[in-house]
Write a structure and sequence with these properties.
The chain has helices at about 1-15, 55-70, 70-100, 105-110, 120-160, 165-210, 220-240, 245-250, 255-265, 270-310, 315-360, 365-375. About 70% of the residues lie in helices and about 0% in strands. The protein contains 12 helices and no strands. By secondary structure, the protein is mainly alpha-helical.
Length: about 425
């Protein structure tokens, strides 16, 4: 009676022909339970923060958060070092520029009443300002490029479950910074060219029609042309969005990285655009939340100073101290929020690169083969792991193998 009841239950839930010898028939095995027929699908190996198979949206986002959680100290250490160097160089550049033209400030900004600044004083200020702008732009671009190279280098270790150190990350990111800088400049120029061309055409049309009565009416043509060219810029930006990860993880040059990024994005543009946009929005929201406590502290630091300013009749020492405290905390909040935004966005972009190569080029098998050949690496396990210091191996993982070369035209694959 009991056997027949169980048999009927199993057939009613899963259909006839079932037997206790097949795995996966129920949640608790044997008859009954959830109707899970057939052999169970094997779980993908996961030596690090992501399973080595095509990734879903949640796995890409959780992989970015998991990388920050496991390697947050190393990531924050390199980011803070980069920010310190960039700010130091920028401060020195501003100081040198101000000292070199300090004598020209008074004649230019406080000339005698009714007189314009003399050219011999205005010229040096314009030259120094132009040079300082270029220097600050290059230094800032260098800092962003180091951070853009840092995140793929860190993700390479996080995917394989290998531990890493501050020195290894610093060396890997700085080594690829020139190539990443070149890729970023090329991608920015190519992606920004449609908008620049539209602006140039619009300005030329308005300038040519300036003498006519319809000239002022054509002023709206400039932003209209720029908005029309904006979708092309967004398309190109997404198309080249994986170039930094390609430079770091494949060890190629800027031009090759742009071509590889375009090839990986081709056919999957909307998915990559949507995930990149969502990652940027999440990074911006969390970065804003991180800045809020610092902004509150800076605001409360200014309240007493602003309250005593009308009574004192002028700024006092306490006012300057309060202003310094407010600026300091605003700078801390802005730095923390900006670092998280850059780091999270770059990690999402690097995970999209890994996902595209797993889908198209069998990168998962290559990573598993590399881990199997490395006796110091942690053995990949099915499902999420807590790979950390126990995963031996202190050396950096090798660059990801290049994709297989396409077959030659007219060649035969069967040897005939």
């Amino acid at each position: 009676m009991t056997q027949n009841s169980g048999q009927g239950q199993g057939q009613g839930q899963g259909g006839p022909g079932a037997g206790p010898g097949y795995p996966g028939q129920g949640q608790y095995g044997g008859w009954g339970g959830a109707p899970q027929w057939g052999y169970p699908v094997p779980t993908a190996p996961q030596p690090g923060v992501i399973p080595l198979r095509p990734l879903a949206l949640g796995e890409i986002l959780s992989g970015a958060f998991g990388t920050i959680s496991r390697h947050g100290k190393q990531l924050a250490g390199v980011m803070l070092a980069v920010m310190a160097i960039v700010l130091l160089v920028m401060g020195l550049a501003v100081g040198i520029a101000v000292a070199s033209v300090f004598d020209h400030f008074e004649p230019v900004f406080n000339p005698p009443f009714g007189e314009d600044p003399a050219p011999e004083h205005l010229g040096p200020l314009l030259v120094a300002g132009g040079v300082l702008f270029v220097v600050l732009l290059l230094v800032g671009l260098f800092g962003v490029a180091v951070l853009a190279a840092l995140c793929p280098a860190l993700l390479k270790e996080a995917v394989t479950g290998r531990p890493t150190t501050f020195r290894a990350l610093w060396r890997a990111s700085v080594r690829r910074t020139p190539a990443v800088t070149g890729a970023m400049i090329l991608a920015g120029l190519i992606a920004g060219l449609p908008v620049l061309a539209a602006l140039a055409v619009g300005i030329a049309v308005v300038a040519a029609s300036a003498t006519d009565d319809g000239g002022p009416a054509l002023l709206g043509l400039v932003p209209a042309l720029a908005l029309a060219a904006l979708p092309v810029t967004v398309w190109l930006t997404t198309r080249f969005g994986l170039s930094s990860a390609v430079v770091v993880l494949e060890g190629v040059g800027p031009v090759t990285a742009l071509r590889r990024s375009a090839a990986l994005v081709r056919g999957d543009w909307w998915r990559i655009f949507g995930i990149s946009l969502l990652g940027g929005l999440i990074a911006g929201a969390i970065g804003w939340v991180m800045q809020m406590p610092f902004n509150f502290i800076s605001t409360f630091a200014l309240v007493p100073a602003m309250a005593e300013l009308p009574e004192a009749g002028g700024p006092s020492t306490g006012t300057f101290v309060a202003l310094g405290v407010a600026v300091f905390f605003m700078f801390l909040g802005g730095t923390a929020g900006q670092m998280f935004q850059i780091g999270f966005s770059q990690l999402v972009s690097s995970l999209l690169y890994v996902d595209q190569r797993i889908r198209r080029e069998g990168l998962a098998e290559a990573i598993l083969a590399d881990l199997a050949a490395d006796p110091t690496a942690a053995a990949p396990t099915a499902g999420p792991t807590a790979a950390g210091p126990a995963a031996a191996g202190t050396g950096a993982a090798p660059e990801y193998p290049a994709p297989p070369a396409p077959p030659q035209a007219g060649g035969s694959t069967d040897g005939r």
